[in-house]
Structures
1.
Amino acid sequence: MDVYADTVRQYLEFAEHADDSPCFAEWTTRVAGDAEVLAWLAELPVPKRQPNLVLAAARWHGVAAPGPYDAFRAALLGDDGTIRSTILERATQTNEVGRLATLVPAFAALAGERPVALLEVGASAGLCLYPDRYSYRWSTGDGVRTAGAGPGLACDVRGPAPLPSAPPEVAWRGGIDLHPLDVADEDQMGWLSTLVWPEHDDRRARLLRAIDVARRDPPYLLQGDLVEQLPALVDEAGRHGPVVVFHSAVIAYLPEQRRARFHDLMTELVAGGRCHWVSNESPRVLPAVTATGPDATDHRGFVLGIDGRAVGWTHGHGRWLRWL
């Protein structure tokens, strides 16, 4: 989803992709046709109108979900500034560790037998920096493949994905974010929990396990601009091993011109041998990567890329992987 797109389009697209959250699918569909709520949203800065942020802010202030749309609508239209303030102060920083089940095959393909320096762009609380601390269960057409030890992550896989027998070893892990979250901060972790869709109790439980994993060995997170400060951080990571830069559902939050600059920067870094690059974004976010794969029309997943080339499709929460 493009957070800079027309508001009605954003909410309709969100509804289409939220079919496993009946509550959010209904709420966002109705927002798209509600002139008063759209007028309320129009008072917000464009990137702050995004559905997941608005939905989470309303829930943060007591709107029950699952619940009736009318209660959500009344909360927005009757807001005394409290919900608006949360929307302006917070960000959508969903830290979905379930995506690791779709990312680990790409990491492993790049790592080979070498421990890697793992660098996440838009790291949030850094929960996805621990692929070596989880166990994986990949269901394929030929049976079940497993790897690793720790909390379990499951994924349905189709296609010739390079599923490893063990997760990659991580020699160094770090990330960069405009507003990195602290895994020891209960308020910030509570916000991450609120960002999980209301019916997704399994994801909420997984988030709590991921927070526990990260708290045992807190990640190195740098506050900064991902375009301006990334090259120096790549060089810092490179002192510890081959660098794999990755991101998932992050670049959509950049304006289009900055997305193009980020793509060019990553292309330069990869071409210069300074790192590898694993991207996992909606099809329209990095069009040059999407264009290297088959037609993306009507596809309802993320494009998984390695070094700027599409290698698969993934579910936004890591439920499935389709390797090209």
2.
Amino acid sequence: MQLKPHLGFALVEALVAMLVLAFGVLGLLWMQQQALVLQRQQLMRSLAIGIAEDLAERMQLNAPQRAMYARTWGQSEGVGSGPHCASTACNRSELAQWDSQQLQHVLQTQLPEGDVSVFTRTDLPAGWGIVIAWRDANETYRTDATAGTPACPAQMSCWRLFFRPEP
């Protein structure tokens, strides 16, 4: 009995087609995963921008107490105690303390391991800077020591906002 060489060729073709299909599906899954990572990064940046702009507006409105808003990385002492200015009248000092409480709450609830540094700009008279950081092991949006600002902590991404308050 003589074997025909084309027997089994259909099976090889089917295996090759399945292999091509599998690589195509894996490629699509990888592209979807990359799109989700980029979407998450954009969401974190958007949240950081909103938090920084909100804090800058609060500092503008409470100009006489602006120095009370200054913070360094990891500084959260005094947060959680103090008045609730949404329901009771507060003086400017209490308002600054309440704003800090609100900032800490937003950082804890909206950004993964969120942190903030608020500082005066030495290179810009009466200038201020706000750096919002969030946990990002890949450091996908890392901005280091821009214009003399605090360096972004390790394994975090940062958004920076600079402003000069109106007198």
3.
Amino acid sequence: MLTKHLVLLSFACVVIAALLASFVNPSLVKLAYHKRILDNPNARKLQKRPVPVIGGMSVFVAATGAILLANFVVGTNTLFIPVVCLIAMFFVGIIDDMVGISYVVKFAFQVVLVFLLWYFGFRIDTLGGILGIHRLGLAPSLVLSLLAGVGLINAMNLIDGVDGLASGLGVYSGLICGIIFLLHYDAVYAVLSMSFVGALLPFFVHNVFSKKYKMFIGDSGSLVLGMLAYLFTCRIIHLPYLYLIDDYSISMMLAIYAVPVYDTLRVMTFRILHGHSPFLPDKTHLHHVFISMKYPHVLVTCIILTISVIIFLIWFGLTWLELSITWTTVISVTISAMIVWLIYIVIDRQRFFGTRQYARQVALARYRTKRISRFYYRMQCLVDRKHYPAPWKDEKKTNALSD
């Protein structure tokens, strides 16, 4: 049974972080416009006007505030090294958002920070019985930790392409990991995960529904979310054995982060095959095919989050079959990768050949956009506390969610 105090502490972290973020967000938006810390539209980006790119600061400040307050209840001294690395990654993202830095420099910082975490014990040094392998030596552990850490950081960074997607995945993964920590009575990491969940919720609302306080999470947020994914993975695979699903911790983490991981693997593989750098941006991510079908950002986010939940439920169902750890992992990874890859490939081929099925999907997307435009308009007015002209009354704005 979960202790009542641990549940209340986790809930308090969510509330405190959410309140701090709600208080900080308006001031940060004004600061971003004043200092011109904006993400300007171009041929690759999807927005039509400059948007503050300071949301990562809001999330980080609010989450850190909640963690510091929780420290008076439960000691969070064991988070010193992770928090130092998170702060360093946060500043790398802030610099990139403000003045821009080379992807080579970002990659080098990621390698150094993941190596420091590995050195201080935050490492992937077990396969949990996959292929009969349990403990790994120092060299294999270092290689696997660098691949997993840098891979997760870049996966969360590259998935940030439409409103609410990176923050939505952060809330989804943080909730699942937070529940796992609660079930294992891990108060420190429950505080860490729930604090970021609470900080992400107000940002998600402002990012998706607000016009007045709209901002992007930027690299300062997405890079931190990627490092959190690595920290949660390292912690979960070392939790004490209490439940049946603890046997499948590796495959569980692959299921939680399936969409960003497998989508990034596909994108980078295709870039390399076409002779391009795997780190240079383009429009070949999963969310881009839905945007090409005229789906609004909020629906794209909902679709991809639904895909993530379905993949996790498939993994959870496989654990009930009580197959071997190896077979459960192989089947789960295969199904997850096929879902993510086939959705992109099928839609992209329909778009390339201009099939009737694709035309029907575009028409359906426009119909759904009109259906939710009234809900979106009311949410926008509610969040901004301001009345805007109704978009469906303007013949030139048939899509209220296009920008």
